[in-house]
Amino acid sequence: MFDARFLRNPHYEPTLRPLSGRDRAVGAYLESDPSFDGFFNALTGLLAPLLPRYEREGKSYLTLAIGCTGGRHRSVHVAEKLAAWLRQQGYVVGLRHRDLGQDALAELVDPPRRA
After folding, report:
1. How far apart, in whole angstroms, are the C-alpha atoms of residue 79 and residue 76?
2. Per-residue model confidence (pLDDT) at position 13
3. In this structure, which long-range contacts are made by residues 104-110, counting pairs with CB atoms below 8 Å and at least 24 apart in sequence?
4. Average pLDDT over residues 106-114
5. Greatest C-alpha distance within the chain
6. Which pLDDT tens digit goes with each residue over 50-83?
7. Residue 109's CB: how many other CB atoms inside 10 A?
8. Which of 64, 75, 98, 111 makes the best surface tag, with the fewest CB within 10 Å?
């Protein structure tokens, strides 16, 4: 589990709030954070030597999790970028954003009351 809450939060930018980490504008905003490149390079630098070792040990999967406060912007972008990096390394990647779309689900479960 890696925590992305140290990155600037797009939630507080009115134009970015309704978007997700899958949107280019959110990605550009996050990647302009002075800490982003160092974090991402350190993360991939940690994983690069470990992944072949897991394979050699016969491990059929590895679960990685990226978290942030709302699960909509920062963690989504980092997970998408990490998945792309892993695919470039030749790995098969399954990607699931646990909290993305929860607003719509909550509305279906408890629809807004009409006056």
Report:
1. 5
2. 95
3. none
4. 53
5. 62
6. 999 999 999 988 999 999 998 999 999 999 999 9
7. 7
8. 111
113 Ramachandran zone, left/alpha/beta (phi>0; psi -120 to 50): beta
Q: 5 φ, ψ to 5°?
A: -70, -15
User: What amino acid is encoded at 78 in this protein?
Assistant: V
Distance CA 28, CA 24 (A): 6
- How many of the other CB atoms lie within 10 Å of CB of 64? 14
- Rounded distance, CA 40 to CA 21, Å? 15
**Token match 């630098």: residue?**
45
Residue 104 CA: distances (Å) to CA of 53, 63, 75, 81, 100: 40, 26, 19, 24, 9
Tokens of 41: 């390079």
